[in-house]
Amino acid sequence: MKFCYPLIIVFSLTVSCINGEGDNRLLDTELEAKIVQQQDYALNEIKKADPSQRRIFPRTLEEDGSIVRVSKRDWTSGFYPGILWLMYDLTKNEKWASEARVYTELLESEQFNDSNHDIGFKMMSSFGQGYRLTGDERYREILIQSARTLISRFNENVGCIRSWDHHEDKWDYPVIIDNMVNLELLFWASKETGDPVYANIAVEHAKTTMENHFRSDYSTYHVVSYDTVTGEAVKKQTRQGAFDESCWARGQAWGLYGYTMAYRETKLSEFLNQAENIANYILNIEKLPEDYVPYWDFSLSDKPSEPRDVSAAAIIASALYELNKYSKENKEKYVQIADNIMASLKSAKYFNNTGTNGGFLLRHSTGSKPVNSEIDVPLIYADYYYLEALLRKNQIQSNYLLTAN
Predict the structure, then answer these.
(1) Can you state the angle between helices 249-266 and 310-323, rounded to 10 degrees?
(2) Can you give the residue range of the structural domain that contains 102?
(3) Dihedral class, residue 359 (left if φ above 0, else alpha if ψ from -120 to 50, else beta)
(4) Active site residue 136
(5) 44 exposed, middle or buried (CB, 10 Å; 0-12, 13-18, 19+)?
(6) Number of domains making up the chain
(7) pLDDT digits (tens, 9 = 90+) for 225-276
(8) Is 297 considered catalytic here?
(9) 57-61 and 174-176: which strand pairing?
C-alpha cells in the first residue's frame, strides 16, 4: 500500500445510515399503502420463477412487459433482497423478512466472487441490510468474507480497487466511479472486526479517486485506467456516458453517494468537501430539469429528446438526505432538492400504477444509453434507492416533529 492511513471510524450499527430501531412507517400513509400493494404484486410475479433456476433475480422489464431475470452473479442481484429487507424495515411485517431471507441466502456463494468490484453492491444491499435488521451472525461472517474478497482486487501501486477484468484491450487497470459505493462494505468490515486494513484500503481508494476522477467543476469521469507500475492515471473515458468528457448522471450520483458515505465513516473533512462540491455541480440550475429528475447525462445539448434516469434521481435524493446531516451551510437546500425529487417520483409520471409493470415501483430509468440497453424502463436499483430515500426522508421529518414538540 502506498500510504497507511489511520483507521478513523465513526462506530455505529447502521448500514446506509438508516435507523433500524423504532417505527419507520412513512408519514405519507397513502404512499406507503401504494408501495405495499405494488410490492405484494411484485412478490407474486417474481415467485413465479423456479428458485432452482439460474436466473431468478428481477432486474428490469422486456418490451412485452415480462420480467428480465438475472443470475446471482449479476451486479444487480442483491437489490431485490434489499428491497424486501427495506419493506420489513418499513412495515415491521414478518412476511417481508421471511421472503428477504429466501432471496438473500441465494447469494451466499457470491462472498467468494472475485471477478469484479460489484460484491459490495450485492452483499451490502442483501446480507448487509439483513444483518442490520436481524443481527444474524451467519450474515456477519458472510459479509466479512465478502470484504476479504473485495480487497483482493486492490493494487498498492495504483491505490485503487480494480473494477473490471474485461476490455483488457482498452484499459489496463480500469476503475469506475461506481466503485465508491462498494467501499461501504470495507468500512463496515473494519468496524465489525477491529482490523483497520479494510478501512485503510477504502480511504486510499477514495483519495486516489478524488484526485483522478474529477474535473475542476467536480463533474466525474466514468472510467479511469491506471498504469499498474507507476500508478499514473493514463486514460480518462466513459462506457456509459454520452462522450468521454461528459458527465454521466448516474455516475455523478454514485460519486455523491460514495463520498457522503465515506465522510460518515471517517469524518475526514476532505470527503465532506468533495461530497458538497459534487452536490453543487448536480444542483446547478442548468443541471436539473424543472421536475428535478435528470436526463441520463448532464452534458447533453438536446436534452428534451433524451430519456430521463430515475435511478440517478433516487440515488441523488438518498445521498442528499444523508448529506443534510453533515453539512453546516447547505442542510436546508439539500433536503429541499431531495424533497422535490421525491415529490416528482411519487407522481403519476414516474410511479407505476398498482398491479402493472411487473411490480416495479418506478419507471423511466436508463441503464446504458450508448449501447441501447435498458432505455426508459423500470430498474430494480432505482426502486431500492427510492425506498432507502423514503426511509431517510421519513427519519428527517420525524426528527423535525420531535424537535418541534
Answers:
(1) 20
(2) 29-404
(3) left
(4) no
(5) exposed
(6) 1
(7) 999 999 999 999 999 999 999 999 999 999 999 999 999 999 999 999 999 9
(8) no
(9) unpaired
